[in-house]
Amino acid sequence: MNPKTLFSFHLAFLIGFFRLVAVGAAQVEQPPLKHDVAVTMKLIQVYVSDKNGRPVRDLDSPEFEVISNGRPQRIVAFERHVLPAEEAGETEAVEIESLIMSRKFFFLFDFAFNDVGGIAMSKKTALDFLDTHALPADEIGILSYSVEKGLTLHEYLTSDRGKIREIVRDLGTGVGLGRAGTFWDELTAEKTAKLDRGASAALAAAARQEFKRAAQAQYQMEILKFSSSLKDFAAGLRYMPGIKHVVLFSKGPPDFLMYQRADQIAPEANRMNLNASDGLNLRLRYESMIRELASSNSPVIAVNVEGLASRVRDMDFEELSRSARPSSQSSSGTALNLVERNMVGDSALIEMARLSGGKYFGGMNDVQKISREIQDLTGTFYVLGFIVPEKWDGKFEKIEVKVKRRGCEVHSQKGYYNRKPFAKLSALEKHLHLVDLALSEKPLFSDPLRFSMSAAAQPSPGGENDLALAAALPILRLRRASGLNRLEAFLLLFDQEKNLAGLNRLELDAAKTSDEAVFCGSFSGVPAGRFECRIVVRNIETGDGAVATSAVDIPRRGEPGFKLFPPLLLAPLEKPRPVFGALPDFHGFDSARFAPLTGEIPQGTKILSVLLPCSFHQYEGGDIVFRAQAVDLASGGRTWLPLSASAYRQIDAVSYLVDLETGGLSAGTYTLYFFAEDPGKRYPSSFVRAPLIIEPADPEP
User: Fold this and answer.
1) What pLDDT, on a 0 to 100 scale, did the predictor assign at position 209?
2) Contacts with 675 (C-beta within 8 Å, 6 or more apart), sequence order
3) Would the pLDDT of 700 be above 80?
4) Most CB atoms closer than 10 Å: which of 28, 114, 134, 544?
5) In this structure, are 65 and 192 located in the same domain?
């Protein structure tokens, strides 16, 4: 197992496994309302600027008007996010707790219509924004588009800036570029050069034209794929509340593919005819994608990185094929010739920003200025909440936001999509729903049930380890009276850097089980370290979900002595309980007598059995001695617990079945500590801990 494995998705098969602190002042008139079957609260983000384009920072709730489908709406929740104005060249941010909504960004790195220099500058710009302008509450996701992999999600929305920075820093260039970054070389340069050396000038000219046509056809297909992938992704964002800023780092598809060539239309003006079309309707499909982004409230901030690598001008075809696609100006600042003009993609990027309601950044090499302007553009906004009837028709509801104060210009989302039944979602929308459910601490698409789980580990030969997960799934709450009983369960394992280190999936038939069933899962070959384990369960037909999380520390072996491993708490089987999945072969675990403990124990339970794995390496001491202590998390009180232990030996390890006397513990939440000591004191002691909840005893009748 590679604990550094990043779990990304491709839109062809998007299972890419897959907080709010505001700056300035927040004012809340009423806390967010709980959704019910009759009504729901819609939250919208609003940006307001003055006539000079500067953000207006001091508006209050009564100054806003919200009109939905022609009807005025009463604003029941209001929040102001304000970036302080710069003074003396510095911006000091005051952090306060926010209650409703933060900024959301998707950084999209285009590897297909780009070059090595452009990608390097893209990463530099993104890192500058992260280091100097990103706010603690900002949620950022990372996407890339490449020829080989299509649209890939490297990280879902997260406020972990360190994680985002690591992903941006490590984004590859050669692998990510694929054929697109060296496309002209592959299709033209090498073959044309060979022909020129031994063929007539006429044959060479014919070959050049053929390679040009092949190159154009390949680029056209890439534009179709890019437009289709991004349109599907935008559709999946429809039901995510608020504005999602898509920051696209690209050079853009070459203008000559969606617009007629400059020298064919207006050579004397050296400009593009933006009304031209093509046989594949590339422009119509491209703009359809942009409108989908706009309707899903995902404006595009298009950063044109054209020309930030080598700049070229006045080339013939062979020279052009060996170089980066040129910039809109030469290194000397003069206008491009017609060959260069047809290869740039600024028109496509300008249209994407314009039609989506975003902004275009081009013709500048100042990384700090770009990131600062993105901050100015997105940093000051308002959140308005209003109540509407709950609808499940998937229709688009128009919104108009007005400000009563004169001289203000409003920029807000144009509307929102009503939710639709889960069964009617597209495959991509369902996958995004799953990513959100699995990875978000506060999922945006739904409010999942929470349940408890336990995690235990034992050493296995070869220096690796087996990890066991157990839980009582909330089956009854995930089932529907209509008989929709198909469930899917995902077991996820994250390492200390929050990379996905393991994933298992299985399907369950909820009709054949109940809340008394025990769900078990496992990972093998797990290295030492701290891991976060997560179980995600979703009704395949309704989308209802549930999530459980637990942390586990697996000790490192190799030093002489012994190491205790995370224990498995056991519940006696008074009657058979159905088991889904399987535990690894834990030595000493008798499935006829026990099941993993998946919840509380009642007050007065006399004996709690615990399976305690232990590894040995070059140990020459006597039989180790165990002690156990229960710490009451409410009072801090500590209680030593009598115990007895029996050993089950295996190679280089022993599993101990420990019986704890817990009858004297009061109801409450505890941490159990298990200590192992060498009676001769030659080797260091070892300890592990596990949570325990004791529920009050039923009152006497």
Assistant:
1) 55
2) 626, 627, 628, 629, 685, 686, 687
3) no
4) 114
5) no
Global pTM reads 0.70
Q: Measuring CA to CA, how many Å separate 57 from each of 376, 570, 673?
A: 12, 58, 53
**Domain range spanning residue 63?**
29-103+386-413
DSSP string, 326-384: P-SB-TTSPBP-HHHHHH--HHHHHHHHHHHT-EEE-S---HHHHHHHHHHHHSSEEEE
- Residue 396 shares a structural domain with residue 365: no
Q: At what angle do helices 282-295 and 201-236 cross, to 10 degrees?
A: 20
* Torsion, Cα of 265, 267, 269, 275 (10° steps): 20
Query: Any idea which of 84-93, 240-249, 538-547 has the lowest mean pLDDT?
Result: 84-93
- Note whether 527 and 499 are within 8 A (CB): no
Q: Residue 508 — pLDDT band, cuts 50, 70, 90?
A: confident
Q: In what order do the strands lie in the sheet with 518-526?
A: 453-459, 465-471, 518-526, 579-580
Distance CA 372, CA 367 (A): 9
The pLDDT value recorded for residue 699 is: 65
> Closest Cα to residue 76, out of 524, 385, 441, 440?
385
Are 249 and 124 within one domain?
yes
d(CA 688, CA 455): 12
- CA–CA separation, 413 vs 294, rounded Å? 8
> Which sign, positive or negative, has the C-alpha torsion 533, 537, 543, 544?
negative
DSSP state of 182: T
Strand (E) or helix (H) holding 276: none
What single-letter DSSP state applies at residue 323? Answer: S
| Dmax (CA) of the chain | 106
Question: Of 690, 413, 480, whose CA–CA distance to 570 is shortest?
Answer: 690
| Residue 561 domain-assigned (yes or no) | yes
> 431 pLDDT exceeds 90?
no
Are residues 286 and 172 located together in one domain of the fold?
yes
Judge residue 503's burial from the number of C-beta atoms within 10 Å of its C-beta, 0-12 exposed, 13-18 middle, 19 or more buried. Answer: middle
Phi, psi for residue 612 in degrees, rounded to 5 = -120, 95
Q: Are 53 and 123 found together in one domain?
A: no
